[in-house]
Amino acid sequence: MSNSTILVVEDETAIRDMIGMSLEQANFRWFPAASVEEARSRLVNDAPDLMLLDWMLPGTSGLDFVRQLRRDESMRDLPVIMLTARDAEEDMIRSLESGVDDYLTKPFSTRELIARIKTVLRRVGGGDQAPITIGPLTLEPSSHRVRVGEEEIALGPTEFRLLLFFMRHPERVFSREQLLDQVWGRNVYIDNRTVDVHIRRLRKALEPRQAEGLIQTVRGAGYRFSTQL
Ligand code: CA
């Protein structure tokens, strides 16, 4: 985790340098970018492990940039922490829904920033990297590949994490609250229905391979990953 490379996309030099210094103190490598255009070339050339992305940037906004990245196969799973001066609840939900892994509202402490980075890196990369096979499904944590039989299926970052969590804890029922804690893992207010939205997307991705029945609704309790009907 230390020695991970962080891309800092922030147009305000003072904030960028302050973040960079804290990253160095925490033994991270980092690269600066002052705009989305610069960030694009950094992403290709420096292959960062995580991106800190300011919401308010000249030209393309941070939020639009994340949406573009999430449609890009090679960048879909890049962990992103959004830096924002906005704290309206709706903005947070929009950014989380757009595939941001976490967010920090300015002004934030550098301690808080480093803690959040470590948490996100642990969540996306941590744990056992060995492939998991259950029934027809195989998931490779290291390459983020999911196969049903021989066929690979495409999942969004949240659906991937959800499936990873389920496959690490098969045959157990989890409430929506538990799934929010374990898979989203943050303290912001997110509606429980967000879980349902991502469960639906996960099932939809599994459906063409007739594997959607693995994600089961347990009435009044939550969801379960099970190979038994
Ligand atoms: Ca800015």
Could you describe the 3D structure shown?
By secondary structure, this protein is α/β, with parallel strands linked by helices. The protein has 2 domains: 5-124, Rossmann fold, CATH 3.40.50; 132-225, Winged helix-like DNA-binding domain superfamily/Winged helix DNA-binding domain (Arc Repressor Mutant, subunit A), CATH 1.10.10.10. It is built from 8 helices and 12 strands. The protein has helices at residues 13-25, 36-46, 62-70, 89-97, 110-125, 157-168, 176-184, 193-206, and strands at residues 5-9, 29-33, 50-54, 80-84, 102-105, 132-134, 137-140, 145-148, 151-153, 173-174, 215-218, 222-225. A 5-stranded parallel sheet has the order 2-1-3-4-5, sandwiched between helices. The chain has a 4-stranded antiparallel sheet with strand order 6-7-8-9, with helices on one face. The radius of gyration is 18 Å and the shape is globular. The mean pLDDT is 87. Residues 11-12, 54, 56-57 line the site of calcium ion (CA).
List the defining traits of the structure above.
binds calcium ion, 41% helix, five-stranded parallel sheet, four-stranded antiparallel sheet, alpha/beta, 2 domains, Arc Repressor Mutant, subunit A, 229 residues
For the record, the count of structural domains works out to 2
Strand content: 15-25%
Give the fraction of residues assigned to helices. Answer: 40-55%
Distance between the termini: 40 Å
Cα gyration radius (Å) = 18 Å
Instruction: Name the helix and strand elements from N-terminus to C-terminus, one letter apiece.
Output: EHEHEHEHEHEEEEHEHHEE
- Please summarize the sheet with the most strands: 5 strands, parallel
Number of helices: 8
CATH homologous superfamily identity of the largest domain: Response regulator
Low-confidence parts, pLDDT < 50 over ≥5 residues?
Answer: none
- Report the structural category: alpha/beta
Number of strands: 12
CATH fold call of the largest domain: Rossmann fold
Largest sheet, order of strands side by side? 2-1-3-4-5
Which hetero ligands occur in this complex? calcium ion
Average residue-wise pLDDT: 87
Quickly give the CATH architecture of the largest domain.
3-Layer(aba) Sandwich
Principal-axis shape: globular
